[in-house]
Amino acid sequence: MSKSGARYEVDRLVLVPDDIDLSRSPLAGAIDAETYVLGAFNPGLTRLANGNLLMMVRVAEALRTPVRGGHVHAIRWCEGGYCLDAWPLELTETADPRKFMLRAGGWKIMALTSLSWLLPVEMSPDGLQIVTFHYDRAIAPQRNYQCYGVEDARISRVGDRYLMTTCSVSPERHSTTLYSSANGLDWTLEGIVLDHQNKDMLIFEGTIAGKYWAQTRPLGDLYFAYPPDSEWRAGPSINLASSPDALHWKPCETPGIRPHAGTVATARIGGGAPPILTKGGWLTLWHGVEPKEIVGIYRTYWSLLDRDDPSITLRTDHRPLIEPSPVLTRPIEDQMYLRDVVFTTGIVDHEQIYVVASGEADLACRVTHIPKTLFD
């Protein structure tokens, strides 16, 4: 039990924006504008063959001065490099620091204030110390469907393969892309595996009856109502899909994890860390969002799923496992632009604990050691 009363002992920020060397960024020298690290967060997590851990950190690289000359500017990958787009200020809404909305047409249209790329950071076996940065293996946009960035890696080791899902962002689609690797460091882009606005795809760390399984989370602006007396709340839910090869996915017809009507703390939910197999079933960490202002309050929750049929939830704890921590971010208060967000993205077995990696405040990487006995 920590001094704060939480259910874990080790809980700290292990990487912050100032740890990133933008002179080694994929964007270095590519655009005629100064950039800075808006956030280094939401790290995918896995264990390498040498015993060290690997965090695949999302680096959101933003323009230092996005508004100038009466325009808001955005960074975009284009064939052969990167470019800047300028939008008239009077056509935009800039309430959210991570993006701006465009008042055009009959749709919600937005652009980002940063472009994200992925940085492999090798960590000590317990995830608490940085061993080395692998800038030479950074993952940056390389296809039109990634022109606004590559976001939020989730890494699963299935057999002798590492599989990494990412969110690729572009005007073409907001899709899930898959990378594969034999060693966790050198990655091959396999392409799009889920199409428009299906976020937080997490591949199970192991197969079920010879098939790959994944959690998915389709998004939309319209959801049909449950009956008035239902225990479920309408909105985004964590669905399931299976695949013979991790490339071609068929949705599962049975519902997965759904938001409960009895609490606003999980009014919107989505996947967190890839499910891992424990003696009690598949342990899945997921996020629930309580509505508040623009972004909401993000917390991490957990469930145990049946090992043979993961559509069956065996146990769920409605108390949050991990909550946003202003104590941890106090030393970097001057860089804060968002609050009330912890977004868990990785889990690895380590002796008597689980090493859990999260993004804190869309700003930094947080590692929490959680006793395995908590899930018994």
From TrEMBL:
Belongs to the glycosyl hydrolase 130 family. This is Glycosidase. It holds the Pfam family Glyco_hydro_130. It comes from Sphingomonas crocodyli. InterPro entries: Glyco_hydro_beta-prop_sf, Mannoside_phosphorylase. The keyword Protein biosynthesis does not apply. It comes from the Bacteria. Keywords: Glycosidase, Glycosyltransferase, Hydrolase, Transferase. GO terms for molecular function: glycosyltransferase activity; hydrolase activity, acting on glycosyl bonds.
